[in-house]
Amino acid sequence: MPNPRSAALTAVFLVMTMISPLCVAEGRADTLDALRREASKARAELEKATQKMEDRKKDLAASQVKLRGTLADLAEAEAELNRIREPLARLANSSYQQSGAAGSMAIFGGGDPSEALRSTADVTLIAQSQQALVDRADELQDRRKRLASTAQDLQSRNAVEQTRLQQDVDGLKNKSAELTQQLNKMLEKLAAGSLRRLQFGCDKDLAADAKKFPNGLIPAKYLCVLPQKGFKLRADAALAFYKLNEAYKRRFGRQMCVRDAYRNLSEQHQIYAQRPGFAAVPGTSNHGKGQAVDLCGGVQNSGSIQFNWMEANAGKYGWVHPAWAYSNPFEPWHWEFGTDE
Length: 341
Description:
The protein is an alpha+beta fold. The protein has 8 helices and 6 strands; from the N terminus they run αααααββαβαβαββ. The protein has helices spanning about 5-20, 20-95, 115-190, 195-200, 205-210, 235-250, 265-275, 305-315; strands at about 225, 230-235, 255-260, 290-295, 320, 335. The longest helix is centred in the middle third of the chain and has 77 residues, at about 115-190. The two termini are about 35 Å apart. About 15% of the residues are buried. GO terms for molecular function: peptidase activity. Keywords: Coiled coil, Signal.
């Protein structure tokens, strides 16, 4: 029997149609479409800005790790230099105080010229080595100062950028929330039913993205919810199912009974383990593509009024009962979108 509430709403809409010009309805539809486009655009911008911020965080973290490693190497080099400096100083001091030598001035004294030259050469070599280490230490210290300054600049710049990006993200969130609120108010004002709400909540462009993922591994954000709680389908299949479901509801006074829809890879393995040889091999099921449903409520019985109605009407909305499901295996409950294979 027709739903009295549905009949009343139908009467209201008929009166509204008679009173309001057609252009007003078209204008409202255009407004809804515009709001939806804006909401979709805001979502895309939000995802882009968030990803940009995450990438910047990763770059900063990598830079800081590299900086810490460099500073650690410099600290180790300076420590080694400190360990070497003291024994070199003692060695240089003892060479000046050797018996028969007068330090670097011995070459001008009355001692053995050969010994004086050798002593002076040793001291010179020691002094040169020590000076090289001192120069190296100065070089390392200067480099450390430059790195520390660079790190400070990098951290300051990234802090500013992160603040700006976060402000952008917050702004986009607010914009998205505002658009969503406007859309909901508009839908409520138009007394939109569940079909309209589901249609506006399911972006058909998600279907192309969903097809990029392997069977049974489609992320939830690329799927659309069905009127039946707990079930999802690929966007194009879901949009077609909404209309099929509404037609079914008009005929039988209730929504379609769904037993299964999108099936992830883990669920496919569980079902195959229960029915090996009958269930599809995991990774090949159209359930894993988000374009198949298993129905109940009478449709599961071949020859029933509900099954016959589906055979006569499902094709109008892109849904078919595949040829194999008539016999091998026999599954009158299994229906697919966009395929007869």
